[in-house]
Please model this.
Amino acid sequence: MVGGIMAGSCRSGRSSRNQTGHGGDRSISGDGWFTLEIAKIARHVVAIDIDPNLLEVARHRAKGNRMTNLDFVPGDAYAVATLAPRPADFVFMANAFHGVPDQPRLARSVGEALKPAGRFGIVNWHRRPREETTILGEPRGPRTELRMSPEQTIRAVEAAGLKLAQLIEVPPYHYGAVFQRPEPVDVAADVIDHAGARRTNA
Ligand SMILES: C[S@@+](CC[C@H](N)C(=O)[O-])C[C@H]1O[C@@H](n2cnc3c(N)ncnc32)[C@H](O)[C@@H]1O
Model:
């Protein structure tokens, strides 16, 4: 994933259980750190970022690593479902969800981009004062007032119909929340089951 968002499809034969890293994917890309790591284990990755310059850096890194299973698509994360051409097994967004003005809208768009039972992984900074989250002695990460607790993130994403599947600590300062798009209800099978039960009970 580059700066904005990432999506794609799993390698065949791989379990979809561990999709925080083992899918094919769509990512908010940035400069490519997560995108390239995910592309090592995914069949295909679409990296999306609103900043084409960051995508260029990521493309350059991918080329340097002789990686060919990525597309780099400039655009707004709200349009993730149209920016990536195929339904995705997994959509990933790191260090960016806190800055999304309408988070349920984004989560709805991600839901539209996913296959049924596909997953949406978010990595966020913990809601701690910025002065406490230091790297090499310097405060890092978003401003304190922008940070979201796991509960806030879960509320925002579940408002769009996705369901929390897993909450993971990513020490020292982050957590990961993995959401799943519900499987469609098989109405026909339900009706037949119901009718069968009624006949049996008659
Ligand atoms: C803090 S950076 C995180 C980059 C990367 N995910 C990481 O963790 O290193 C946030 C990224 O989101 C991108 N971004 C901001 N608004 C966006 C939008 N509306 N659609 C897509 N990308 C966006 C920025 O260009 C930037 O690359």
In short: Residues 187-201 form the longest helix (15 residues). Residues 12-24 have pLDDT under 50 and may be disordered. The pocket of S-adenosylmethionine is lined by residues 1, 3-4, 28, 30, 33-34, 48-51, 54, 76-77, 94-96 (CB under 6 Å).
